Fold each of these.
Amino acid sequence: MVWRVFRFFLFQLAGALLGLLLPLNNHLHGVLLGMVLASALWVLLDLRRGMVLLAWLKEGNTQSRVRISGLWGEVADRTWRLTRARDKKVEESQGRLNEFLAAIQASPNGVVLLDAQGCIEWCNETAADHFAFDPQRDVLQHIGNLLRDPGFLAYLGGEDYAGDIVMPGARSTASRPVQLAVHLHRYGEGRKLLLSRDVTSVEQADVMRRDFVANVSHEIRTPLTVMSGFVETLQTLPLSNEERARYLDLMAQQARRMQTLVSDLLTLSKLEGSPPPGTAEWLSVAGLLLLCEQDGRDLSRLLVDQSHDLRFSMSGPCEIAGSHSELLSAMSNLVSNAVRYTPAGESIEVRWQNLPDGRAEFSVKDAGPGIAPEHIPRLTERFYRVDRSRSRETGGTGLGLAIVKHVAQRHGAELLIESQPGQGSRFAMVFPASRVRQIPA
Ligand code: ADP
């Protein structure tokens, strides 16, 4: 500032000196004129600098720096510093916001920000996928116009957001249902945060658990009811010895049915709750086939008057790595199914085949009724039966193929089912080469 005043006086002095040189009679007049002209020039130069500063401010390009001297130069310099500092802060907060949004984008849950009117301000990609929103087009749309599920609309309007609701996702179809848990939270001044979570598998597991409990209860209740009926009859009616023996026989049959069911349930729970069998124990396939054959022939004799034409064959001596009890249970289940569903006297072919690529296939082919294609994908579900009465009559629990599937999975094997109604069925387990080794005859 002092320098500026000093410069002004220097200007005046130069003006006064130049005024002295003017050819006037009175030197004082010349000095005064020189000083007035110097002041006018000073003001003009100042005005020019002010105009340059104004033009720079109007342009708003804070990246480039304007170079002017004097007071205006200082104003320009300070303005430039201030705007640079502000720009830096804006940049930093924009960076933080971007990082924050990227974190929300990465969330496996859907996030939608709603303004006080319930219009969408922002949503992440997961939410866009859950509700089929377009993150650009649907901004500022009212959420109620886009999510028309009656349960959600009641929840949105109800103002009680303590819990969440489960509703179908936008891409839900009858064959591939998608269930979403949706929770609203209030924040700020009347704003809402909507969180969505895909709970399809949780819901499915829940439905499966409920179905399973209902099925087990039903399976146990039937023989129990029959047995308690017989007990009551035995207690209340005077019966002959033969009648008594017949009733006791029937009761024993029902007790066996319950025993088989409980034993299959225990087998399944063991299969699910234990680590898969290692490859340390090598078992003789011939030994396993022999036990299967004995079980199959016994069952065939028990069920039908004219036994089945059961044929067992093996392509070569071989060993398999795994659990003896599990493999025997799976193989026997397949043989027992073939015996139970094939009419008397018909043929059943059980084969062990070492495949050229080192794998091995255990297959059971029968000449039974066959299975319609729509049932095949569901056969390994627990308690799923195509022929309910035939299954029950022959002592089936509806768990056999579920056990086979688990055992196959635990041994890295593939379960193949080929069947056509009226043309018999073929069930096969293909074991990986890592679990199979051929041995000298
Ligand atoms: P189940 O104890 O009822 O036999 P499974 O799980 O072993 O239960 O089999 C499921 C259903 O698959 C059976 O109820 C039956 O309807 C059908 N099934 C299984 N094996 C055969 C077969 N070899 N031939 C025809 N149907 C079969």
Amino acid sequence: MRPHLRDVPIPDLPAALRAAGLRKPDFWARRLAVRIHLHGALSWEDIAADPEVGPRVRAALEAAFRMGPQLEHAGARVAEDRTRKDLWRLAGGQIVETVLLRNRKGRTLCVSSQAGCGLGCTFCATGRIGWTKNLTPGEITESVLRAQALAGERVSDVVFMGQGEPLQNYDAVMAACGNLHHQHGMSISHRRITVSTVGLIPQIHRFVADRQPWRLHLSLHAAKQTTRERIMPIARKNPLPELLAAMRSVQEQLERRWLTFQYVAIPDVNMDDEHIDALERELAGLRYIINVIPWNEMGAEYRPPSWAEVKDFTTRLRRLACPVKIRYSGGKQEGMGCGQLSAEQIEVAASGGHLLAPPGIFTA
Ligand code: SAH
Ligand code: SF4
């Protein structure tokens, strides 16, 4: 089947256009990249709206590539704090989402890298669906451009924290990051593109070897191997010492001043002093931030922490002498405010961790 034009990574466009028989492939690559990856062209008609694109060029393109939307908008919802969620239906019928969050520093779009996820973390709704599909680079970039267009606001940051494990769809995610960062695309700074991983050791090493410039956050959730294995089955194949050694190489070889460890806080699972001791011991020698995500209800046998429990946990975390951020759902826990904490930094209006919501609660 002909490749979809949006699925061709921007750096590969000149060669693909040359192969399609176009003269001046560099010129066309630049023009088409801007049209598709910046202005969000969805159809051949959008491409042909460029007065430079005559019938011969269009015919050559149509013979070599597919074009058209790869996603169907399947619903939207705006929360009280103006967080906006859009649902996107893929060609196979699966639904993924984007979530636009506003904070002091800009507008962050949370995107999906897979439909569902096969890794089965016990606290995560996406893990329950199971894996159904890897998104293509074109599907990912289209979701960003269309979410931005629907919101009518420029996206300043992109985080891969929607459905899926981004490092299990490594090539497509890295290509999408490259498109978002490219000067002929949205020109988003590499420091404003974040990939979040459950902790797949070989892929983290590959990320380092490839010298990927994007931020990489690790969903650590526990520095005790037994707890990790209990809540994250994939931890069995990715043991802590090797995982943290891989993160150390991210810090040292990619020269990252700070590593970010995400920590979903689940009462009676990973919030006691024993787990804080483990963090202190296992993370010694690294320079890191802990991003605490109070666990959100999703039907598992866990219980969401109360605000007092989160506060007590972050107070006990002070022992680690590292910056601690709390990510919470602005809509859900209106009572939280910067003034209520002392040493901690608070990220207001960020999402409540995982972003999957059942399609039923959205209106089309
Ligand atoms: N697969 C990747 C990225 C997607 S999940 C990863 O696991 O890192 C984004 C973040 O939300 C992860 O840190 C994940 O552990 C967390 N998360 C998943 N389910 C959650 C829930 N019910 N409540 C709070 N955070 C959750
Ligand atoms: Fe997959 Fe991440 Fe959810 Fe685990 S937390 S099941 S890796 S999406």
